[in-house]
Design brief:
Length: 175
Amino acid sequence: MTRLLWHSERGEGAVTDTGTEQGTSTTTTTIDAPGKQLGTRRGTGDPATRGRTTIADGVVAKIAGMAARDVVGVHAMGSGLARTFGAVRDRVPGASKSATRGVKAEVGEVQTALDLEIVVEYGVSIADVSRTVRENVIAAVERMTGLEVVEVNINVGDVNLPEGEEDDDERPPLQ
């Protein structure tokens, strides 16, 4: 419950927040003039030490997958089999694309390690794409989670050929 008391003639007031559940603390802030804070009393201890935040592997994998897909030259994520099953699943009405396809995350308390499987576009520098993917993924994961990314392993599993070109073994033999 929050009560706001203002004495407009004198320009002073008090804001009191009172928790109604067991274990909540009472906060009182005294304000001398609008926006000027005189003092605050809250529960004891540093707020950063009053609980624990855990981040699931799937959350980190989703962030990494989205960051990797943003890089120019990345055609798809995942191995051939995963992409095949994903393509079938994507055709189901109401289904959404899996942001974690091609990403494996191992999350500890303060660090994480990632394995990515990507398909690159034909003609791009695989070294440059890999470097950019690694930079993008590290920046996004560290910014959003606060975890230190210790490694990003990238496996380039395929190259996407331009439309109209097929693999050599699928072409009819020359006569």
